[in-house]
Write a structure and sequence with these properties.
Chain lengths: ~200, ~200, ~200
Amino acid sequence: MLIFKENTVLYADNDKEIQGAVMEKCETKIGFITVSDRASRGEYEDLGGPAMQAWMTKALKSDWTAVASVIADEQSLIEQTLIEMADVEGCSLIVTTGGTGPAKRDVTPEATATVCDKILDGFAEQMRSVSLQYVPTAILSRQIAGTRGSTLIINLPGKPSAIGECLEAVFPAVPYCIDLIEGAYLETNDSFIIAFRPKHAMKQS
Amino acid sequence: MLIFKENTVLYADNDKEIQGAVMEKCETKIGFITVSDRASRGEYEDLGGPAMQAWMTKALKSDWTAVASVIADEQSLIEQTLIEMADVEGCSLIVTTGGTGPAKRDVTPEATATVCDKILDGFAEQMRSVSLQYVPTAILSRQIAGTRGSTLIINLPGKPSAIGECLEAVFPAVPYCIDLIEGAYLETNDSFIIAFRPKHAMKQS
Amino acid sequence: MLIFKENTVLYADNDKEIQGAVMEKCETKIGFITVSDRASRGEYEDLGGPAMQAWMTKALKSDWTAVASVIADEQSLIEQTLIEMADVEGCSLIVTTGGTGPAKRDVTPEATATVCDKILDGFAEQMRSVSLQYVPTAILSRQIAGTRGSTLIINLPGKPSAIGECLEAVFPAVPYCIDLIEGAYLETNDSFIIAFRPKHAMKQS
């Protein structure tokens, strides 16, 4: 739980102060979380995080700032990082990579479900459905998506090549979803990916 | 929670009495709930409720009575209305329209999940799958279906044109589902929509 | 809850001792549970259990031993049987048949969800999706799959002819799933069904 006190943010559980962490609503921030025991220990290079950022760079025409983190497969740590990126940094979108399989250490969906207000099952269905065209083990993925306040959180697979496939499958619905939860207004590069918005939701450029 | 006391029904929370609300099992009732802040305040015309009723009129050959309600996007109010239509009115089927998106005020699925004994994920999957053929933002719908005693409850989208698409996608399974939970025996107009029942479940006409 | 005490296993709830129930990790065991009030009372022949075993015999090249049980649609009994087959018998895979519909007595998914650590929604989606090609009432199935420790549990329909359709739809992902949860290494008869494993996960034969 976060407690806001004047210009500082206190974590109720450990009283650790984060100075100057006042949310700036005017700036569009996107969070990138790589969940991997080995990458967090530096045992191998994080490929998922950069793959997600590279995809987003191609997809978005709007300005945005990246907030990135590489962390171990620990449920409480994932939850804390999601909460900080959502509530403190004010990210409109957070994408995670890794930790969505059936293994004991895979706990990213559990952490995501815990911090979200609403789960959007359609994202998971659509990502699995598209991944199934590539590999029958796509059904093993437990990746979910949901909202926390004005932040949309999407779990992506750990495999870098599968990240693009999944984002391509769901991103056309992402900008309008973030409109509905009152986050930033995202615009896509139509030559790369076309987002759908009902006419009444489009801002004039 | 409902407390039955002789021929009256008492709401435990507010002690409001509903006279003569004894359930009549012989009559087939279908509940229609429009969940919309603005429609409930009369700020615009309820189009979803009439669209659901018009569809049902075309689909069903059996006699039935409509029980309709237009209410605000308040979770406790939606729950109370679902419980009343299921337990007091004895509706075999309740369809809702509205409140299934990701926005903060969208709480119809939460209310439905709270009052249901069993959730039938296949309805949600099938409705989203069909809606995806029309619009990529179909994955944002959190509509669910489930059973409460002998009542089947189905969430439909708020957009009137999408109501028919979703009902068409799942209705072939609805009459047999209601048989299995011991609700009314529904018969469809086969020229409009064909319901599936295993042979052993068909009544001779 | 199971309490392991030296070479015996005690059920905390009833103190019933099961002698010599020490798990042998070297042997591959598969559990088959038929959930049916009538079959458990001997009122009709269990066809689902043998259908699941016959399918597995065709599918698997590896050696395995069957552990089979025919039980009533009682949630606590299903849970107890799943726990015993997983924790005491050490089954790497448990398949169930029956009790997945919307009727009041159908409680197999509830029991499965209760004993599982993780639910794998992709199995349910894929099984319903394939069953929908045969019958529109496939959306009524609430069958799920999940893991309990090193055991994968899959709910299958009650109808014997639908068992093969569902197993065919998900089995290509089963051996790798069991690898990931550190269960037995299963090999399939490729002429019957081809399982997918990433190259790094394949054992040399």
